[in-house]
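Hi support team,

I'm opening this ticket because the web form for multi-chain structure prediction keeps timing out on my end. I have pasted the exact lines I submitted so you can reproduce it. The total is 672 residues across two entries, so I didn't expect it to be a heavy job. Is there a limit I'm missing, or should I split the entries? Thanks in advance, R.K.
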Amino acid sequence: MQQSTSDNEVLLDEYTSDYEIGQDNVQALGLDFHNPVFAISSVAVILFVVFTLSFPETAESWFGTLRPWLTTKFDWFFMIAANALLLFCIVLVVSPVGSVRIGGPDAKPLYGYASWVSMLFAAGIGIGIMFYAVLEPMNHLLTPPLGLDGLAPTAQRELAMAATIFHWAIHPWAMYAVVGLALAFFSYNKGLPLIVRSAMYPVLGERVWGWPGHIIDVLAVFATLFGLATSLGYGAEQIAGGLNYLFGFPEGAGMTVSIVAVITVMAIVSVVRGLDGGIKRLSEANMVMAAGLGLFVLLAGPTLATLGAVFDNTVAYFRHMPALSNWIGREDSDFYHGWTTFYWSWWIAFSPFVGMFIARISSGRTVREFLIVSILAPSSIFIAWMTIFGYAAMDQYLVDGYRGVVDTVEAFQPELSTFAFLAEYPLPMLTSVVGIILVVVFFVTSMDSGALVVDTMTAGGKIDAPMAQRVFWCCFLGLIGIALLQGGGLSSLQALSLATGFPFALVVLLMAVSLYKGLAAERELLQAEENPDV
Amino acid sequence: MYKHIGVPVDLAHRDELDKALDTACTLASTFGARMTLLAVAGPAPGGAAHSPRELAGKLDALASRLAGRSGQVVATRVEVVGDPVADLDRALNRQFHELGVDLVVMASHMPGIRDYVFHSNAGFLASHTDLSVFVVRD
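Hello R.K., no limit was hit. The queue was backed up. Here is the completed structure from your submission:
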């Protein structure tokens, strides 16, 4: 007399395992965590923070040089990896495996398109729209990439926008889509735990449950925690800078620590309210608020020219993409290493976090639908937003001669670029406050989704581990941020986090191989089920 | 007095359910009520099963045994939610109302320090639903 509301099914093949979710977990004091991933991750994170606080100069010289060394020495590798992952996504979309449904043939999506896209955006790199939409196009206008100096003004603007869009649209989302799809497929379709190592099962086999898998998961926790905690620290400094710029609030340790504390408390409330009551609602609210701000700037700025520029910039982006993606014979080192390969390592370092969160909210979609929406929807939002803000900012400078934004670019103050830009439009105080609220809410959703993901990673893939653990990770993130704000070392540990982009680039490429093998086998199984006599 | 008894079931903690299931069976026999076993799970594999369908199969097997024991009809339902930890309480309340349950028999741990911060699921349901709730301590 079953009345099941779900028909998700695991089809058995060589990519399923006898491994039981939680079989290596320890249950104590009402908690449920993986042994040894939880212990190693927590202790390693604490040790690195203590080391960085105790020996800041040594940490700076060790970790600070690691990331630029990797992104300069292995620039070709990051470029090839990013291009290969994008091509891989295109292949999956057009190939027959695109019809495989995540969670089984009868699985239903848990979230509608609007909520799904809002959450994709808010948990990942959505916050970039507040810091780089104005600064980056202006920077590329002042120092053009690809060595293309002396272009006509219109072409120069399009190149600046194309280069910005190149970093924020399509490529990063393709990286996240591969990780998210691999994790979702091997978990929902093959019954493996929802942890990063599971996506390596076809490559590593049963060894994935031993130390090779432990190392992958610990690295994922490490990259997520440090990446988020240091971003939070910088974010607090940026919010403090904004409050000082707008209202003359005093800057300093007290202010930044208070901001982290407030964001952490808000994130804990969001964590306790869960995915639907917390992240989903905040993400949707943020999307509405962002849309309102974007619409205001569009109407207050050169409206018709900007609308035309959305199309022109998209065309320019695709026209310049081959040159911008090229890794051979590049002579624009400042742009190539300072921006592109830096971003690529950043995106890939964040891929376990963003990918895992995307996997968490994406069951019930087909592979094709998952890839098209998770790559094109956020990319379209970025293209529209970056054009509205970037084009208008360039207009302020080139047409009106306003240097407010240029000054923040030359001083590299991403936190002030947007405010300097909004100052030229009506109601600057109101729009700037909306900007600050957007930044705070983006941080809250990032921390909440980070705590959710780290909790699952350290609970052996259990998504129903006790709520107290999620709260613990949220507090832990806030405390690391506060410790680094007080003791210094934000840049060192962020550099260390970004350096994990290199090993993860390898892991993600292997994931793509695993994913293709798994999807191809799944499709064969489904066909055999549909046509048992063939 | 009661026509339909709902029993929340977490098969990952099967060993802690015996007393609540015995109570539910006894009440079902006494009142001639049917029972529904309700499991709330995420789409991802968990401690109880690798997929919601496998979970449904295990729940059906348990329902068959309980039907034999109580002599009453025992149905099952698996509700898939995005975040089973946070959504459990509201999902139970919603599903039991949808099913037309008039009594919930629910296992719960002994209250401890943790319960001052995080309410128990049975505690939440008893405080927030208009259904009758029978909380069974393990």
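A quick check on our side: Chain A is about 75% helix and 0% strand. Let us know if the file doesn't open in your viewer.
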